Amino acid sequence: xxxxxxxxxxxxxxxxxxxxxxxxxxxxxxxxxxxxxxxxxxxxxxxxxxxxxxxxxxxxxxxxxxxxxxxxxxxxxxxxxxxxxxxxxxxxxxxxxxxxxxxxxxxxxxx
Length: 111
Known about the structure:
Layout: E1 23-24, E2 32-37, H1 40-47, E3 59-63, E4 67-72, H2 75-85, E5 88-89, H3 94-110
Parallel strand pairs: 2-4
Antiparallel strand pairs: 1-5, 3-4
């Protein structure tokens, strides 16, 4: 069974995808990407639980020990989220992405 990361450590893009040039996170784990192309209503249901109360989630990446699940209804959003799953993030998410990387590595060491 895939162990889910705690919501406080999840890296969620909730509409803030246009600021800055993406940066690559060093030592990012190789995660299998599972893409869910669904309606915006389903995206909202799946992603809003991780987004701030005031945000409208346009898509999200949900991280597990060995997988990253992309929830999106639009091609351009899915592309951004796939990049996030591969460790390519916007500068304002860099610290959060490093926390996620470290948590995934730690979980995989534990077995």
